[in-house]
Structures are given as structure tokens and as C-alpha cells.
Write a structure and sequence with these properties.
Blueprint: H1 2-22, H2 31-51, H3 56-77
Helix pairs in contact: 1-2, 1-3, 2-3
GO cellular component, one term: plasma membrane
Family: Belongs to the UPF0410 family.
Protein name: GlsB/YeaQ/YmgE family stress response membrane protein
Amino acid sequence: MVLTVLWFILVGAVIGALARLIVPGRNPIGILLTILIGIVGAVLGGVVAHALGAGSVIAFVFSVVIAALGVAGMTSARGGRWGRSY
């Protein structure tokens, strides 16, 4: 279980870093916060998938999706690319 959580932390960090590179323009949150949100989302997604009894591949996909949505949501909440348009 500990190795699985470490895997989700690594996945979340990579997703957070990639999200930082993908979103163009000025990013309203810092790189460390973006990576932290990715980690939290990946761990949360992995734990929920594990609790539902999903396999490891489904848990991985679920953790990636939740982490990406978390980073995108935080970016939009802070007035980023998908936030305010004025």
C-alpha cells in the first residue's frame, strides 16, 4: 500500500508539472502549488478507486483524471485560462 501511495505521489507531481507547461500565458498559481494540487488529486483519486475495488490500471487512470481536474479547477478558480475573460 505504501508503494502504491508513493506511485500516486509521483504521478501527481508529474501531472502538476506538465499542467504548468501546458497552460499558456501567465499562470496564477506557483509551480509548487500546482504540483501539490496534482499530488493531492492523484492520491485522492487512487484511494477512492482502491476503495471502490477497482484494479490497478483503473486506479491509475482515475488518479490521473482527478489530478488533472484538480489542477484545471484551481487554475480556473484563480482567474487563469479558463477563468475570467476580461
